Structure formats: C-alpha cells, structure tokens
Amino acid sequence: MEEDLPRVELRGFSVGDVKVEVFREMSDLTPARYVDFLAFGEDMVESRYFYNVIARAGRVLGVKSGGGVVGVMQFLYPVEPQDGLFVKRLGILEEFRNMGLSQKFWKALEGESREHGYESLWATVNPWNGSIINSIVNKGGYAGVEVHRDLFGVGEHRFVVERRLGASLHGLDEEDVGRQIRGGVVKVVGREEILKSDMVAVEPHDIDSIERVMDQGYKLRLIVRPKYSGREGNQNLLVFVKGRERREPIGAAKVLLPKTVGGHAVSLLSGTEECMEAAVLGVQNSQTEPTIFSMKMFAKAGALLGVRNGGRIVGAEGLLFNPAGGAFVYGPVLDESHRDAKLALELVKIAEGIAAKRGSASVNSIVSVKDARLIEAYKSAGFLAAETIKAGMDDGSDAVVVSKRLK
C-alpha cells in the first residue's frame, strides 16, 4: 500500500494537546487507511469504498499531530436496541502507543454512546492477542461474552467482548489469580474435564475448550501472563468466570425476508464460506474490492443478504444502520449470469423495506459512477444523487452517494 503522506514526528507530541475528530473526507480517510496499514498489515485494511461506508454508516474518529494522522478508531451503531456501539478497530502508530491516546478514543466513544442512550460497547478480539486482551479486559472493564471459531477464515477465531457503561473498571487481580493458578485453586482445564469450579483457566490456542467453557455460561474476565501464573515459556492463560446471566448473541439484525426474489431463495449470510462467496461476487462485478472482513462487518454488525440459485450464492447485499444518517446499503452485487437491472431493483426494494420497518429516516448507498446498471436500479427505486465523493473508489474513480427519504 503506497501512500504519498507526510511523515509524523513524535517530537513535541502531547495527548493533552490533541483532540479526537470525526473523519469523513478522503483527505482524512486516506491517511487513516495508512495508519491501519502500518498498525495491522495490508490484508486487514479496508478499501477506500468501505472506509467511506464506515464513515457514513458509523464513524471514523481520528487524532492528528503535526499535520499527520497518528490514530484512528472505527465504530458502527447497534442493530438491536440491547446492543451497544460496535468498535470495529482502533489503530495507533507504534511510536505513539502507551501514551494515553487509546484512552482518549475510548472516552470519546463513551460520550457518543451516552449521547444516543446506548448502555454498552462491544468489539472482537483475537484470543492470541494478549496485549489487547490485557488492555481492554484486564484494565478496561470488558468481558468476553461469545467466541466465534474461524470468524475471519480458518484459524482466525475471535472473542466478542462487551463493556457495560457505568460498570466498574476494576475486575479480577492478575497477581492474585496467578497465585491461585500456581497453587492449584484455579485449574487449567482441557477439552474433556468436568467444570466444577466457578473460575477456570484455558490456554489461548485451545479453541475447543474455550468454546466448551463459554457454551456453559462462563465469561472471559482476565488474561494472566507467565510471570504471574508460573507457566513456562511465553504462554498466557485465559481466565473464565461462571456467569450469572445469559443474553441473546450480540450483533446481527433480526430481519424478516421474503422467501424468494426473482425466483431465487433469499437468506441471511453469516458463515465464513458464505461471506467469502459474497466477497468474491463483489470483486467480480464492482470497483469496491471487498474482503471477507468487509462481509463479516455486515453479517455481524448489520445484515448480509444472499440470493441463491440452487446451492450457489449468485447475489449479495449488505445493510448497516445509523440512527442519524439512516440505513446504508452495500451493493447489490450479482453473479455475471444474474446481472440484470430487474433483480438489482428488487434487492434494492427489499433493503428499503427492511430500513422502513426498522424506523430508518432514509436509506442510502455509495455507488461507483462507472456502475450504470446499479445507478439505474437505484434511480428506478426513487433514489436521488446526494453527494459526490472524489476518488472514492479503489480504482481512483469517483463515487456517488444516492439517498431516498423514508419519512
């Protein structure tokens, strides 16, 4: 990923002197993407198109210093009333970490949550990422409430972690629990052992045991590092505590769909293979360059619709919901053999109907100016051009935001 961006200097930087801003224009989103590239690697960076979607369906927050972007947070609004804001990603340039910048982002996010009346925040975390778990679980008051095997591909497992606003940030003491592990009071369990205690420890790579423990109502409450647990090598332990309550899974809109569209079955997509098929469709017939991460964003934080011909996915459409900005639609993207304006129009109308039932004030989409078929489908459904995004697509072409008022 090559970007002609100014080099940011650490000299003179002070967290107290910078502010968290809302990024919406490409002049800010381009360096924000570069921060993601440096922080997470090229495979994890969303395309220009999807960065524009996130900036409108949710928010992209950023911090600048010396003319350059040094930190970025992306979040999306909840799809169900009981869910809180979904923190998609927080990236900070390496030389600006451990200076209190992440706390500045979290504080801004909590303010956004309270402004809209949300009671919690949630995010996804890799079980192997000990530093992040230590930061947000041990120190930030989050608890792991779900685990998803292969969420972003084979071996790419993720916890869903949640923090209730107003709850204490002080949880279990890592040193004290470490002593209990060394003394055998808190046991490290495997996939066959009977769970007798309210607190157990599991190795991060043991996804089978993690799933079994969480299926029985345990929540991730702590990571214990080797210097406290006495474990040999550099092996952390994940500590789970038996929960007192169960709740519905976080994320993924509960929507009613028609059984068919254009003679083909319609369903919600969520599985890794399904999301990969949807991503491939997007690559084949648009300038959006979707990835499995993009499709999982819709499947987990909104809704991802699939159109099937037999067992094959031949069409896909994503939905996200913003309480102020209305619903946002990705696509629809269609297989070459099913790429006609009539089917695209029917899918646009389904998205519009879902948005209307959920009380959205408007429904919107971002379309490449090169995609005449999709622009015509939206025009036929009564959408109007609301905004042009210069170089908003990954091939450098412009994008147009189309919008329709629902109330």
Overall description:
The protein has 407 residues and is of the alpha+beta class. It folds into 3 domains: 1-114, Aminopeptidase (3-Layer(aba) Sandwich), CATH 3.40.630; 119-250, no CATH class; 260-405, Aminopeptidase (3-Layer(aba) Sandwich), CATH 3.40.630. It is built from 11 helices and 18 strands. The strands form 3 sheets. It has an 8-stranded mixed beta sheet, with helices on both faces. Strand 4 (85-92), helix 3 and strand 5 form a beta-alpha-beta unit. The two termini are 42 Å apart. The relative contact order is 0.10.
Radius of gyration (CA) equals 22 Å
Proportion in β-strands: 25-35%
CATH domain fold name of the largest domain: Aminopeptidase
The overall number of domains is 3
Number of strands: 18
Major sheet description: 8 strands, mixed
* CATH class placement of the largest domain: Alpha Beta
Name the shape in a single word: globular
Quaternary: single chain
The CATH architecture name of the largest domain reads 3-Layer(aba) Sandwich
Structural class label = alpha+beta
Residue stretches low in confidence (pLDDT < 50, at least 5 long) are none
The number of helical elements comes to 11
Cross-sheet strand order for the largest sheet = 11-12-13-14-15-16-18-17
Write the CATH homologous superfamily of the largest domain: Gcn5-related N-acetyltransferase (GNAT)
Mean pLDDT, nearest integer? 87
The proportion of residues forming helix, as a percent range, comes to 25-40%
Termini gap: 42 Å
Instruction: Give helix and strand order, one letter per element, not per position.
Output: EHHEEEHEHEEHEHEHEEEHHEEEHEHEE
